[in-house]
Design a protein that fits this description.
Layout: H1 6-25, H2 30-54, H3 61-74, H4 93-128, E1 134-139, H5 143-150, E2 157-161, H6 173-178, H7 183-190, E3 195-199, H8 213-216, E4 226-234, H9 239-250, E5 259-263, H10 266-275, E6 281-285, H11 287-297, E7 308-311, E8 317-322, E9 325-330, H12 334-346, E10 359-364, H13 368-378, E11 388-391, H14 398-407, E12 413-416, H15 421-438, E13 447-451, H16 457-470, E14 475-478, H17 500-517, H18 530-548, H19 550-556, H20 565-585, E15 589-590, E16 600-601, H21 612-632
Parallel strand pairs: 1-2, 1-4, 2-3, 4-5, 5-6, 9-10, 9-12, 10-11, 12-13, 13-14, 15-16
Antiparallel strand pairs: 7-8
Helix pairs in contact: 1-4, 2-3, 2-4, 11-12, 12-20, 15-16, 17-18, 17-21, 20-21
Amino acid sequence: MIHTSAVFQLLLMLILVGYAILLYRSRLKPGIIRLSALVILAAGTIVHLYGLSLEHFESGFMSSLLRSLIMSIKLFLYDSELIELEEAQHTPYFLDIYMLVFYSAMLTSLSAIIMLFGKRAMTMLSLRFRKKKFAHIFIGINSRSEMIAHGIENEEIAFIEFPSDEKENEMSVKNVIGGVAGEEKKDNFSKKANVTVLRAKCGLRLSDFKGNVFATIGLERLKKFIAPDTAFYILSENCDRNLDELMTLLEDDDLINNTIHVCLSRDGVARYYKTTMKQTGTHFIYPSSLAVVGLMKNALCHPAGVMRPLLTAEGKPTGAVQGEFNALVIGFGETGQAVTKFLYEFSSAVSTDGTPMPAHIIVNDERIDSLKGPFLFDSPDMGHSDIIRYENFGTESSEFWDRLMQRLDDLNYIAISLRDDASSLDLACTIFMYAMKKRRNGLDGLRIVVRKKCTLSHEKKLVDKMNEKAGREVIICYGEYETVFTSEMIVSRKKNGINKAATGVADKISAAYTAVSGRTVQTDGRSESFHIRNRARMELHQLISRANHTATVSAIVAGNTQISDEALENLARMEHLRYSRYLTAHGYSYAAEDDDVFKVNHQLCDWNSLTDDDRQYHRDMVRAQLSIIASEA
């Protein structure tokens, strides 16, 4: 019989330690545990077969295999002897291997038990000894909720992690606590003492609801730590799942008046209204709007990037532009509609005589007939605008390509937002190649923006290579936000308690406006009056829109913030034009008296029909924008 050596046993011990480290590092990946269990089961079966052959077990192969398999399964349950050995007999090699398999099975079982019950046990303990109530509760853990939580200071936050989060490609607890979204956030977020992660026993589904929503998911004690002003956030990328979770929350009458921020598609919102008549505190956030906010924040994506500023002979800005703005929006889904409103508003510019610059926006989608109705229901006056034209043939039709080739010389802005992001990028590259070869001015004056998150390295390399070939940014990808989110997500109850990045841009333009005019813009929406609260939120939206419009102003003045009175007047006309288009895009119409409940406003008129106070307001806002440009230069 071969004697075992200390070196061989030490090698096996090192393998076992390495396996334990592997289990620890992969503790958030159940697939690793399952695969390890299968490998150990197979190894245990082989070792048992070998042991039985040494014992001269009198039976056929299938009987031996079955017994070996049963004995191997027992490794995961309790210790069992492989074979009987006499005391004088030396330990054979295969028994050392058996012990390695046995202890590996114990480690695997222990890891699985910790994964199954450890998080739940910590959750129960944290709720048992907790005293403070939560101000913010995030349903599920994902990049959006993680980003918002980074901006909340000095208020208690709870994340509810569901067993299905990883299956839905949500972020794990490790991501949240470690803050892997960015190195800058990592250190700050990992030290946040106000964050508690709670492990639920099942998903938040209406089909599982049994009368107490928190008891259903195994967090019954959580209800004791919810106040009437606790805000909930349901921000998964899976909008259908978000709707299910929202409806489950609303089954609890105690939560109906709490603010619930939820990401839903517009179809999901329609289904919500069809299934509930309750007066709730629900606030809807459209993912398409979130994507377009990223578009608005990027100065390169503004129509100003293709406008040609008109300067005097001395090189001074006139506040006017020359030429036309000709845009094509391909895809009129939720994102395409939001992009259309963005272009409609931000293409506002004037000629030297103060008249609006010619702007033409062509919207193309094979489903335009079904999409245009709801769009115009929200913004009816956009259906009568001579700026927008609608076409209903898709990118697969020959008519689309024939029209594109005919108009490509005149187009200077193309926005692509198809249902498939990969198809959007492919179409952008195709148009880029054709324009480079066949367009009259090549790629000069052309901008192509694409709804696409270039998360894959080969996609980013492709875009970089094309832009390098053009010598400038022609293809620009936009998609999910990173450091911004829509103003609609700001809770008027605690505007200053939520992410400073969201209100920072509004605060900046508000402070600049106060500095140049001596007046303030009212954005405090905490009043109980619906009208005043709605007006305050409208003003907040306006401040953010005006701050984003700074990119347009900067392009038209060519960075020169010292402008003449004539240039100021043209820029003020442009600001009024942008404001009017903003109101139109949000469903407003003209009335002598403003009313934000019925969406009417007296500024939906031409410049000469404004009062002196209104004209001065726009001049001061331009001065505020110029001061921001100067401070950032």
